[in-house]
Amino acid sequence: MLQKLEEVKKEFDASIDAVGSMPDMAQFKADYLGKKGKLNALMGGMRDLSDDDKKNFGARANEVKQEMLDAIDRRSQAIEIDAINEKLAENRMDISWTNKISDLGQQAAGLHPLTSVTRELEDIFLSMGFDILDGPHIEDEYHNFEALNIPESHPARDMQDTFWFKDGEHLLRTHTSNIQIRGMEVKKPPFKFVGPGKVFRCETLDASHEAAFHQLEGMMVGEDISVPHMIHFLRTLLSEIFKAEIKVRLRPGFFPFVEPGFELDYECMLCGGKGCSVCKQVGWVEALGCGMVHPNVLRSGGIDPDKWNGFAFGMGIDRLTMMRYHIDDVRHLHSGNLQFSEQFRAY
Ligand code: PHE
What we know:
Blueprint: H1 2-15, H2 22-33, H3 38-44, H4 51-90, H5 113-127, E1 131-132, E2 138-140, H6 141-144, E3 170-172, H7 178-186, E4 191-200, E5 212-222, H8 227-242, E6 248-252, E7 258-267, E8 284-293, H9 295-300, E9 309-316, H10 317-325, H11 338-341
Parallel strand pairs: 1-4
Antiparallel strand pairs: 2-3, 4-5, 5-9, 6-7, 7-8, 8-9
The structure holds phenylalanine.
């Protein structure tokens, strides 16, 4: 009996590695360990054995059974791993494939550099507690000129600078300063807001002049606001934009809607003030017009100039963007050329 048991075990050991699939394994297991399996058949003969032999046989049979179960487990695992490997080989995935959109003949979308810079400016102003306002591109004479203390005789109203509509009353706004007036119409002081947007002037185009360009208007009205407040504020702003300490200088500048009025320059980032082609050898770059809001402008906004005052500024976004990304011709910005725009995808 014992010998038969060892034979069955030997046969089991010799054939288990040939079992190649889980269904075959189930069958194989039943053949040996099932109710009608080979092991049970032997156990059936136990009753004819002496008590001692019964004990010996029983003990060995249990061992054999356990060894078989272990072997079946091991072999089953191996079969499953083989099956997984086979599947992997069939559905081989090339993980070095970058899935670049350009491989599919398409361009990845990205922000235009002007959009990125405008958004960055908005974030800076939002963090300083400013609201962001909008104003219309098509504006009336009142909001673009009159309410801003620009008299009829002012050269800014000259037909050559302004795109007028045929009705003679509407125009394409020549600056974002209309947002000052629009803002005062909806806000009570104290307030501070900025308004970015497109502006239009009838200009001869060259490397630094476009007929449509971008400005960001700012206005802060409160009590006892002074020129040093304005300078400190604008310097902080430029340092935030360029992520460096920026030197600024003020020059007197005439804008009918501010008094006193200034032009603010910053030291050229590219040459450190030594003079280069970007700053046209002067070492300084014009950043913006600014000044203390003219009492007449406050009055047009229904604000009492004896009680309130403040500053306003209007900065060109195109020039700033060019400085920031070392773009040497403003016309690139409006070219619609994808080869140009693609360079900024990462920003
Ligand atoms: N609107 C002026 C321009 O377009 C800029 C400016 C805005 C100046 C606000 C002073 C105050 O040049």
